[in-house]
Structure formats: C-alpha cells, structure tokens
Amino acid sequence: MQGVLLVDKPAGWTSFDVVNYIRRIVATVEGKKTKNVKVGHAGTLDPFATGLLVLLIGKDYTRRAGEFSKLDKTYEAAMKLGFKSTTGDPEGEITPVSDKIPTRQELDAAIEEFKGEIRQVPPAYSAIKINGQRAYKLARAGQEVVIEPRQVTIHRLEVTDYNYPDVKLVTDVSSGTYIRTLVEDLGETLEAGAYTSQLRRTKVGNYELADSPGPKLLSISNILPHLKTL
Questions:
Q1: In sequence order, what are the beta bridge partners of 153?
Q2: What is the pLDDT of residues 58-84, one digit of tens each?
Q3: 73-204 adopts what CATH topology?
Q4: Would you call 80 helix, strand, or coil by DSSP?
Q5: Cβ-Cβ contacts under 8 Å for 176 (sequence gap 6 or more)
Q6: Quick check: bond before 149 cis, omega within 30?
Q7: I need a labelling partner for 178 at 20 to 30 A (CA). Which of 4, 75, 188, 220 fits?
C-alpha cells in the first residue's frame, strides 16, 4: 500500500497518535506486523490543534517527507488577548498580563507589520532539535532553550472576527512558520499579551481539509478509497 492519506486530526491526539492508528490499519490490510509498515507525516500538529495532517504511506512516499513538509500551509486560529501561556497555547500555564483593550484600528495596524517576510524565533515547546534533543523535552526538564531566529513568510494574515479578548484569524504561511509564535508576537506589538487558544490547519499545498476524514472514520474496509497516489 503506497500513497498520501489526508486526515482531519482531532484535538487531544498527537500527530504520532494518528500515525500509529493508521499504521495498525495498514498492517492489518497488508497482513504485516505493525513495525514492518512505513507510515509517516509531512508536518506535525500540536496536540491541542486540529485539522489537516498529511500522512505518507509506504517507503516510496515516506522517503519524500521533506518534499511535502516544505509546502505552504493555511490555518484558522483564535487568539486570546490579555494573557500569556508558558507554551503559547491552552496547555501551558496561563497568566493575565494586561487589561489593555486594543482598538480594531490598532489590531489591523499590528497585523500589517507581520505580512511578508519576517524573522521568527520558534517556541521553546517545539519539536525542533537542539544538539540532538527535542526542544520541548529540554524545556519540560527546566533547561534553558536557545533557538536561533529563522526567516518565514506570511503570505496572508486577516482578522475574521474581533470581540475582545478573542480574535479570530486566517493565515497562509510558509513552511516552518509557528502560529503560536506569530500570535505571541502580535500580542507583544499590541502591548496586550496573547496566546493561541485554538488552531485548525485547513490546507497544505494543494491538499484541502475538505478531502480528509477523521482517523476514526477510516477502517480496514474504506482506507483504500481515501488513498491518493502521485
């Protein structure tokens, strides 16, 4: 079995949870041991996030993971103003930092500053490797995490709703962009603080969320019709 499988990841699942779930199904279909089945993903989603996860099934596709991971992505995000989170999302320790209520004009002006090519420092709680160790593991162990800034591109960033303290955004970004960091940086610019309260990936390259079932909707009997080949 070879191909690309689009899955709508639910909240609370890690990307690895989805990979393991699908690996077991593929192993059953192929009559193999789970450890002998190649399944990978082309760009992780945080456990709290939902949406499009591109899975690669079979050796011919898993070896192309780098090619798929470089694709641009589209997200719908919710930003909570006035607070900060140690992880940049609802899973961290959340503390109030400001009671400033930015105007819609101030919000729109801040949004404009982040369009185009920007420098971004990925969050400490990320899967980036530092000296062979995942950054989030070092951060959870209480160790200092120093990550160099990287250049990313924000192709589109729009406010779809603003009802303080909640802001809803839609954004098209280059590979390697961290929405949690983008939201935190917006909060700093607004002098109000912010963290990402919700995140949903809706597109990866030309792959659409509308074409992806949830993992629990996939089974031994219907996985093949959902498999895309290139």
A1: 117
A2: 999 999 998 998 999 999 999 999 999
A3: Pseudouridine synthase (3.30.2350)
A4: strand
A5: 150, 152
A6: no
A7: 4
Alpha carbon distance 98, 83 (integer Å): 7
Instruction: List where CATH 3.30.2350.10 sits in the chain.
Output: 3-70+206-228, 73-204
DSSP, res 104:
H
C-alpha span between 69 and 43 (Å, rounded): 5
Instruction: Specify the amino acid at residue 148.
Output: E
Residue entry with tokens 């079979």? 58
Q: Could you tell me what percent of the chain has a pLDDT over 70?
A: 89
From 8, 17, 46, 211, active-site residue: 46
- Are 157 and 186 contacting, i.e. CB atoms less than 8 angstroms apart? no
pLDDT in tens, 86-134: 989 999 999 999 999 999 999 999 999 999 999 998 776 555 655 566 6
What values do phi and psi take at 5, rounded to 5? -120, 125
Residue 116's CB is within 10 A of a number of other CB atoms, namely 10
For the domain 3-70+206-228, what is the CATH superfamily, name and number?
Answer: Pseudouridine synthase (3.30.2350.10)
Quick one: angle between helices 179-189 and 104-113, nearest 10? 130
Active site residue 46: yes
In tens, the pLDDT along 4-23 reads 999 999 999 999 999 999 99
